[in-house]
Amino acid sequence: MLRLVTLVVAAALSGGATAANAAIQTKTVTYEQGGVTLEGFLAWDDALTGPLPGVLVVHQWMGLTENEMMRARMLAELGYVALAADVYGQGVRPADTAGAAKEAGKYYGDRGLLRARVAAGLDTLKKQPGVDAARTAAIGYCFGGGAVLELARSGADLQGVVSFHGSLDTPLPAGKGDVKASVLVCHGAIDPYVKPEAVTGFMAEMEAAGVDYQFIAYAGAVHAFTQTGAGSDPARGAAYQETADRRSWAAMKAFLAEVLR
Amino acid sequence: MLRLVTLVVAAALSGGATAANAAIQTKTVTYEQGGVTLEGFLAWDDALTGPLPGVLVVHQWMGLTENEMMRARMLAELGYVALAADVYGQGVRPADTAGAAKEAGKYYGDRGLLRARVAAGLDTLKKQPGVDAARTAAIGYCFGGGAVLELARSGADLQGVVSFHGSLDTPLPAGKGDVKASVLVCHGAIDPYVKPEAVTGFMAEMEAAGVDYQFIAYAGAVHAFTQTGAGSDPARGAAYQETADRRSWAAMKAFLAEVLR
Prior knowledge:
The structure is a homodimer of 261-residue chains.
Chain A: E1 24-33, E2 36-45, E3 52-58, H1 66-77, E4 81-84, H2 97-108, H3 111-126, E5 131-141, H4 143-153, E6 160-164, E7 182-188, H5 196-209, E8 213-218, H6 242-259
Helix pairs in contact in A: 3-4
């Protein structure tokens, strides 16, 4: 996993970014779960009058970084109020992949805590001025992709979740009728960290639970295909791929437009 | 397979159809392959000035029916010149599924002939007035989905192919660099006729051949999910599903806009 060290640290602008819009406003938002202070990042278009649909953005294993702030701004450009959530806690931003693996592992090992942390972000988003609490969705990357799927499995009240190269397995599979959200999974076809067995298991879980899901696999894409800091060598198991990044963002746009209309 | 008997005979308007446009023109087009006369159906928007990109539509196992003519008209509404191709030959329109299975079987058993028949349709499309021969794609349903994948594997000169619930396996897998077209596969997640092993094999073939493909699976969708005549009971293995039909058509639109831009 050391080869993932540059994954997010070297975050940069990504495919699909739009021209800077002076009306996009951002601010830090602190909130709380289980006595822990969390520090998220809110973005919205000040030129739009609400109520607007809201989108939660859940970070990868390095914690909330410039990558998720960029996605929040991009979502604001699309007319959403976007909150880049913080699962780990204020100031908890792993400095390297060893720290990230340890921190992420805490939540992989305690799905109840993970669900509660993500739900706190969703609740915070719904309470923001100008947000239509009846129209929300959540997207997530890597760790955050798995996290938004957990949010959906928990039966959270939101219209959609989108996982980008997220983990798909869970120790707490959804039961019939549990999931209210529609689900979109954007997957690297040759992701060595999210294997075909996990895909098969996920689809069987979703079918058994009666979930409205879509699964998209992108050619030649490995783990972290939306992360510009992941380098460009698929042989390393994690790599940025402009085509899959662009297409998955477009698929997300169409999905959000459908479920948040 | 007798349960598929109403599949296309009872063809009707499908999700995604747009309002009638008086500028949409249609006509029968006859062409030839291997000494056999083929009878296709051309649709275009007379209000548009060319050259326009062209899209071939390949029929399911019952042969060219009103279903494919409807799709050709819908493509014309989108600004494409669309040719609903004829693989079987003028007047060869099976009356029932037994006849369809026999006729389709001829081409499944002779992929060279299948490729030649579909290629003849593509050539005919490229020669139509107002078509930009450098910007073409092909879409197909069930049998036709498998057929357009064969076209792509043959190295045909076109920009994209889209399979809707098509068969994915082939006795003539693509070699490295063979496929010029981008590929979109729209698949019913629980299609009992196109099984998970076929999906896995197809993706391995595409990866090995270096193809630019995307694979989308739709929740709860079985075979023939775009075919309104297929009924609505997934337990029968083939059934119309409005959600998957609408979403797959939207995915196709985005794909064609990208590859034919």
